[in-house]
Structures are given as C-alpha cells and as structure tokens.
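Researcher: Structure for this, please.
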Amino acid sequence: MSMSSSVHTSEPRDERVGALGTAAKVRLAAFSIVAVAIIALNVVMTPRPVLLAFFLSWGGEFGIHQVHDMAISALLWAGLIVPLALVLYHPSERVNTVLAPVLAVSAVAVFAYLADSFLFTGFLTSAVLAVVALALHPAGRSLFRFDRVGRVDRRAAAVFAVGAVPLLAYAALEVSKQLTLADEHAALVHYGAMGITAFLVVLLGGLAVLRERDWRIAAWVSGLLAASLGVVSLVFPTIESSLGFLGGGLAVLWAVAVVASVEYGRRSDDREDSRGESVVDAV
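Model: Predicted structure, token format:
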C-alpha cells in the first residue's frame, strides 16, 4: 500500500479559472487588475531615463545621482515590475513574491511623506494599490502563514548570515540619512530607496532559506538586487551610497553564493524526498 502522502506533501497548484467559484473568480480578477495597475503606474510615473538607467546608463550621465538612479532602476524591475508580473501566474502560490512590491512602494511612500517630497502623491497611490492587492491576494490568510522548512540547509543559512549583517547595517545607515538629512537625495527619496533595497535583499534571502513555499523567486530577487547594487558600486565606487569597490565586489560574490546555495540545498531536499517516497511506495 502506498503511504507517500504521509511522507511528502506539497502546496496545491492553482485550480483552473473555470473550476473556481464566482467569488474566487471575482477576487482573482480584481487582484490581477490591481497588480497590472501598480506596474503601469510605476512605469508611467518613473522618468524614462531612471526607469532604464540600470540597462542604459553606465556612462555616468546622472552625476551625483548615478548610484541612486541605477539602483532604483534595478529595484523597480527586479523588486516590483517583474515580481508583480510573475505573481499573475499561479498567484495563490506566490506568497513571497508579492511581498517585495508591497513593502517597497509602501516604505517609499512613508519616506516621501516624511521628507515632504513632491513625489509623495504618486508613491501614495502606488502604496494604496499595493495594500489593496495584498488584501485581494488569492492566497488569503495563508499568505502570512510562515511554513518553515522541515530542515534548514546549514550551508545556505551560513552564506545568508554572512551577508545579512552588513546589508542590514547599510540599510540602517541609508534610512538614517533619509530621516535626518535635508539634501536633494532625501527630497527624491534616494537614501530611503537604497535602504529598502538592502532590506529586501535580506528579507527575501531569509525567506528563501527558511520558508517552504515560494522560495525560488525570493532567492533570485534577493540575489539580483544584491548583485545590481554590487555591480553599480564596483563601477562607481566613490559616488554617494556606493558600497565602494571592495564592498561592491563582495556583494556580487555573496549574491551568486546565496542563490547557488539555496538552489543546491532545495534540490538536494527534493531528491531526498523523492527517494523517501520510492522506499515507502515499495513497502
């Protein structure tokens, strides 16, 4: 007799839309509309040079804002636009993926308000839509259920911890600048965005290591954000908020290491689970 269900369980995939009840269909449609609206609003609201800065602006066109604008461009794509687009595919499973966009736009709106920034209205609109999207998320209350992994991979956890401490220190430094300085960077919420980027790297990296569900996108978004900040810092080591040449290089190495270690650890667990199922099925 097969006893595999008692050994290995997985999150059910989304049902086909046609199989959903009316209320679930309406909720899914409303969530999708709000998610697309957030993407569209940020694409339209962001000046085109900043939106595309990470891809097209390696020549130093932004002066003192070079690191900020390129890192913000990376944050918009890797932390908001792409994750929200991915959430639209099997959204009930994207319990980690939806967090980066919601936290990013909400925190930026708070920083813009505190800085009395002219950007506040646009950020507030995005933040309100993000909260609505969170409330409409098809996963419902299970979105906040942690679902810790059965066995934490020690190698992945160690690699993550090595980078988490300095990244949190960097995030705290940038947020303190945002809250205490009154310069042009603060008015544009640049310091706050840099702090948010570093915090999201740590948050999503931690979820990728410790949470059972939706770990892969969390790992890759964490790695991409860390790598983008590192590469920009390598190229522009002396500009405001840069990690410097050494710090940038270490950030890139850490990004590669954390994604690789999480992928390796999770795949090893899957192989062990598969072997365990085979043994039980044979009984």
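Researcher: Any notable elements?
Model: The mean pLDDT is 90. The CA atoms of residues 82 and 261 lie 23 Å apart.
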